[in-house]
Specification:
single chain, 2,3-Dihydroxybiphenyl 1,2-Dioxygenase, domain 1, 4-stranded mixed sheet, 2 helices, 32% strand
């Protein structure tokens, strides 16, 4: 199986409120719009806010949306200025990433992450040429 693309789809209880959160609150750029939905660029992924099929989901959203930012302190300040509640302030985690948590209007957790320059994620894992 070859995976060519991926996206995260959320089906919010209030489409307009969630659209405003991702577009205006987080400032994600729009990749495309279609009748009943908006697809945002989210780094190397896409985030689709669908205006259909929302409402109360059994068990809620079981995952989280992981968004890498360049500077976690700047992101925290920007979100605070926009009135977005920071559920968990930026903290350096034991695995070496700076993380901050917020929630979208339906309670979907978003993890905003800064990857320090010395973290293994930033290292070239390929073997050097022989």
């Amino acid at each position: 199986m070859e995976i060519l693309n991926s996206r995260i789809i959320v089906r919010p209880s209030d489409y307009a409120r969630t659209l405003e959160f991702y577009r205006d609150g987080l400032g994600l750029a729009i990749a495309r719009e279609y009748p009943g939905g908006t697809v945002f660029f989210a780094g190397q992924s896409l985030l689709e806010v669908a205006g259909h099929g929302g409402g109360e989901q059994p068990g809620g959203f079981a995952g989280a949306i992981w968004l890498q930012v360049r500077d976690i302190a700047d992101a925290a300040a920007e979100l605070a200025l926009k009135g977005i509640v920071i559920e968990r302030a930026p903290a350096l985690e034991p695995w070496g990433l700076w993380e901050m948590w917020v929630r979208d209007p339906d309670g979907v957790p978003l993890v905003l992450v800064e990857v320090p320059a010395e973290h293994p994620i930033r290292r070239d894992q390929r073997r050097p040429p022989e």
